[in-house]
């Protein structure tokens, strides 16, 4: 499996470059079966978000290059709401690309909005509303502490906080290599610790290091006024829960509080309904049938995952696919996804997607 992954990592960029440089990828445009939805988080490198990991960021220059490539290829950017209205009429537009930005960071207003306006583009921003009330979720406590003291010191502090012997052992035996250590520690916190315990231990470490939720949330996240400005500018605001929790780990009552809570917050700030939703983390195991039932009951027109691929008339509207893009993304590979090259290869048993 590791060899297969390495070969994919080598072959994928090479094939994408050949298709891109030669113009072969454009041949797939006319037969593209589905619409790509691209997933981003932070734009630019504001000092306030310096603690967030690189895989969540894209520079202004790279985003402009991507938008330029899309425009040159004849694509238009759509919001999720616009796309759903088109699909509801039985049409699958062949010139549509949807840009989505998760979490609701202030840079989406201060940095992204001017880029969109200058290039005649639009997007959908999925906003978690807890930070706007001065509350950060565990993941920001984790990233902030990781930035302050590094993975192995953080792991030791967490090991001192958790009670389970096997977790203490796992945290104290992380890989030496930094990236691998960070990945494994995040996995342990995400899936091996109960949400209540995880939140408590990370909050303790965060506060012990001098972190203050309200201050960090104010500096990093959008507020109601910024959301209204984006909305007035034609950028769609979608819901992303209150606290960015793994919905499948919650019971029905907790899930409803997270989903409906964010919906009602946004409706009160914007003064109108909200039609689009994105799952925190977005893998198929991060939500469940109860989640889908709640979304249907609340009237959401769409919900996006973090599973790559195109979306056509048959794609479930509450399980739409998205492809992640960040500063390290190969834009030739992104364009191969947009043009439908990867879908064509998939159907012939060859998966060369970067994610």
Characterise the protein shown here.
- This protein has 3 domains: 1-31 and 333-355, no CATH class; 36-135 and 223-332, Glycoside hydrolase/deacetylase (TIM Barrel); 138-215.
- The protein is of the alpha/beta class and 355 residues long.
- The chain is globular.
- Helix 3 links the parallel strand 4 and strand 5.
- The protein contains 15 helices and 11 strands.
List keywords for this structure.
11 strands, 15 helices, 3 domains, two-stranded parallel sheet, TIM Barrel, 7-stranded mixed sheet, globular, 355 residues, alpha/beta
How large is the share of residues in beta strands?
Answer: 5-15%
Distance between the termini: 15 Å
Low-pLDDT parts are: none
Q: What is the CATH class name of the largest domain?
A: Alpha Beta
Question: CATH topology of the largest domain, what is it called?
Answer: TIM Barrel
In CATH, the architecture of the largest domain is Alpha-Beta Barrel
**In the CATH hierarchy, what is the superfamily of the largest domain?**
Glycoside hydrolase/deacetylase
- Main sheet properties: 7 strands, mixed
- Note the total helix count: 15
How helical, in percent, are the residues? 40-55%
Categorize the overall geometry: globular
What does the radius of gyration come to? 20 Å
Main structural class: alpha/beta
Number of strands: 11
Number of domains: 3
> Average pLDDT, to the nearest integer?
92
Query: Which oligomeric form is depicted?
Result: single chain
